[in-house]
Design goal:
Helices cover about 15% and strands about 35% of the residues. By secondary structure, it is α+β, with helices and mostly antiparallel strands. The chain folds into three domains: about 20-160, Prolyl oligopeptidase, N-terminal domain (Methylamine Dehydrogenase, Chain H); about 165-310, Methanol Dehydrogenase, Chain A (8 Propeller), CATH 2.140.10.30; about 435-685, Alpha/Beta hydrolase fold, catalytic domain (Rossmann fold), CATH 3.40.50. The model has no long low-confidence stretch (mean pLDDT about 95).
Length: about 700
């Protein structure tokens, strides 16, 4: 029988075959989604569903359109990395509001589909197209190619505008916008189709770093522009570009007061709206653009002494009003024209959209769950989908599509119909128990071996399996969070997963508790939860405690064995941030401030400095550092610099370099064997 490590790698963590990327037309007549043909087939096709009957129809099949396959462009690879995209085939599409016509890119080629007829045609293009966007009349597709923005349609293919130097590009998002702000795009059509709002990015001020492939000594290093904390960001401009290539510059930065263009939209019901932030992220302003001369006027302002959170879907125009999501009076609230409308205890996670006279949001009253809730202009509140687990939604024309991830099989529900899923069932069955522990009511989950019963005097070694950092939760009522944890549990561990301070879902004060210190509060909460759980359950053996994690979780794992070797006896740290000065501006400065202004915050969170300061009386615990050498998010220098500091301090450790692997580790053999190697290391380190 195939084991879990191979299965989760082969199925891309059970995403293959599952319906995804759902859109609902504005009139509710059509629903589109992507889905591959099988549980180990990553190639997604485009499907249409009739919400009245539930009938499904294939719109576009990559295997038919590209019988000979095709290469993936460099820009598409970068987009996939920013979006953590593991699928293939059609991974994104753009359409008219009624979804009667859509466009997409395959292997750098542009396609246009008439949805009801199932007719798909290829449009002339440069051959390395990226991020296609359909004009409001459905006749023209704007797309990014190289450093420019192009347009293709019945009149042929031509470049609208492009960079004049090697560091300037038009039409796409800069690194921090895609990685940290959720803005994955850089061009938006005008409602009349006569022009586009287009981002101009100049990376010349940004430091040039190099990603090498030591496994291939003939290959030249690849240059990237990386805006590390305290250094220069890309210079981002914005212009209204007419179809003849003429440009009206937009004054969005207000003479440099605002550094980040966090969002933009150009809808039929008004002029363009921009969301901009100051460099310290304590001020967010919504601007309205006068397209004739590029001037901007301030529509709304939010300020916070720590930072202003960017919330998906916010701001949103709603029947003449402006809806935002803001941190007020202990909650993340829906705010309409400056007035909070959501009750105490409800944390709004995102604005889904407007449906008639209602505004639909995703929100939590319990951090373990996310529900779909509608608010009416008359003050009515309607819970549209709940019942435990994590729900996301898309709405249009009175039709609601809800993706449900709970402790059962994930599913997509549309107007009472459950969309077929070809995803495989995991060979492990996650069985977490949920707990609220400690003085801070920490949310934790515990997983024990399946069908295991304790023998007298035989408690289990403990494995902490957290992420632990901002913008991500592990303790939620969804089985996908715990499949790998359960596999480790079935190998003989008591696995503990805890969400501490800084994680979302418990309100602004909880998230802001890590401002200025991403080490102390985060680690303290892991230790407190472990001790509280062990006090209540003697099956947890505190003399054998290990921790594993990736990215921020990798940072936390390495921090644990260096700072608290009295508690932790071994660690696996994957792709860890070890020196926050080497991580990007937007994320790092939000929590630690600018390194020139608040250097102590960087000093107290620096693992390299910590490694060099440990005395001979501090126990050395087994530490395995794992890093993809092609990682352009948390670059391999993090692990290598920590390894150097440990070596200079005379502290043994192991380093596992992953050649050709990025931050996502998508390769099947790598993903499978990485789990097995971690298990072997932990067994050896704990003397099992």
């Amino acid at each position: 029988m195939e084991g879990y490590p191979r299965q989760q790698a082969r199925t891309r963590r059970f995403t293959c075959g599952a319906p995804r990327t759902v859109s609902v037309s504005d009139d509710g007549s059509r629903v589109l989604f992507l889905r591959s043909a099988g549980g180990d087939n990553p190639v997604n096709a485009l499907w249409r569903l009739d919400p009245a009957t539930g009938d499904e129809h294939l719109v576009a099949d990559p295997d038919t359109l590209l019988a000979d396959g095709g290469p993936e462009t460099d820009r598409e690879r970068a987009r996939r990395e920013r979006a953590r995209e593991v699928g293939g085939g059609i991974t994104a599409y753009d359409g008219l509001p009624d979804l009667s016509r859509v466009c997409f890119v395959l292997a750098g080629r542009v396609f246009l589909a008439d949805v009801d007829e199932g007719r798909v045609v290829e449009l002339a293009s440069s051959g390395d197209a990226f991020d296609p966007r359909l004009s409001p009349d459905g006749a023209t597709v704007a797309y990014v190619s190289g450093r420019g923005l192009w347009a293709t349609g019945a009149g042929g293919d031509h470049r609208l505008i492009g960079g004049t130097t090697a560091t300037v590009s038009w039409g796409s998002a800069e690194f921090v916008a895609g990685e940290e702000m959720g803005r994955m795009r850089g061009h938006w059509w005008a409602p009349d189709g006569g022009s586009l709002l287009v981002v101009r990015v100049d990376e010349e001020p940004v430091a040039e770093w190099w990603i090498s492939a030591p496994v291939d000594p003939d290959a030249a290093p690849r240059a990237i522009r990386y805006p590390a904390a305290g250094t220069a960001n890309a210079v981002v401009g914005l212009g209204v570009v007419a179809l003849d290539g003429s440009v009206v510059d937009v004054d969005w930065s207000r003479d440099g007061v605002f550094e980040y263009l966090a969002g933009a939209q150009w809808c039929a019901d008004g002029p363009p709206l921009l969301v901009v932030q100051s460099r310290n992220q304590r001020t967010l302003v919504v601007l309205e653009v006068e397209v004739s001369d590029g001037s901007t006027s301030e529509v709304y302002r939010v300020e916070d002494e720590a930072w202003v959170e960017l919330v998906p879907g916010s701001p949103c125009r709603w029947d003449g009003s402006l809806a935002t999501v803001e941190d007020r009076d202990g909650a993340r609230r829906l705010v309409v024209d400056g007035e909070a409308v959501t009750p105490d205890g409800l944390q709004v996670r995102r604005i889904v959209g407007v449906d008639g006279d209602r505004l639909v949001v995703c929100a939590s009253s319990d951090p373990l769950d996310i529900d779909v809730v509608a608010f009416g202009r008359d003050g009515t509140v309607d819970v549209l989908s709940s019942g435990g687990g994590v729900r996301s939604a898309v709405v249009g024309g009175g039709v609601l599509a809800v993706s449900v991830a709970d402790l059962e099989r994930p599913r997509l529900e549309i107007a009472g119909h459950v969309v077929a899923s070809h995803a495989e069932e995991p060979v492990v069955s996650a069985m977490p128990t949920f707990h609220v522990v400690g003085e801070r009511d920490l949310r934790a989950a515990v997983l024990l071996p399946t069908d295991w019963s304790i023998e007298e005097g035989s408690p289990l070694p403990v494995l902490l399996d957290p992420y632990g950092g901002p913008h991500a939760q592990r303790v939620q009522r969804t089985r996908g969070q715990f499949l790998t944890s359960q596999w480790f549990a079935d190998r003989g561990f008591a696995v503990v997963v805890t969400d501490g301070r800084g994680t979302p879902g418990r309100g602004p004060a909880w998230e802001r508790a890590v401002r200025g210190d991403l080490a102390g509060p985060v680690l303290d909460d892991q230790v407190d939860a472990l001790h509280a759980l062990a006090e209540a359950d003697d099956r947890l053996d505190l003399s054998r405690v290990a921790i594993r994690g990736w990215s921020f979780g990798g940072y936390l794992a390495a921090l644990a064995v260096l700072a608290r070797p009295d508690v932790f006896h071994a660690a696996v740290a994957g792709a860890p941030v070890t020196d926050w000065r080497l991580y990007d501006t937007h994320y790092t400065e939000r929590y630690l401030g600018h390194p020139d202004e608040e250097p102590d915050n960087y000093g107290c969170t620096d693992l390299c400095a910590l490694a060099g300061s440990l005395g001979d009386d501090v126990p050395v615990r087994p530490l395995l550092l794992v890093h993809g050498l092609a990682d352009d998010n948390v670059v391999a220098a993090h692990t290598l610099q920590l390894s150097r500091a440990l070596l200079e301090a005379g502290r043994p450790h192991r380093v596992l370099p992953l050649s050709g692997v990025t931050h996502m580790t998508p390769q099947e053999d790598v993903a499978e064997n990485l789990l097995l190697l971690q298990l072997d290391f932990l067994n050896e380190a704990l003397g099992r």
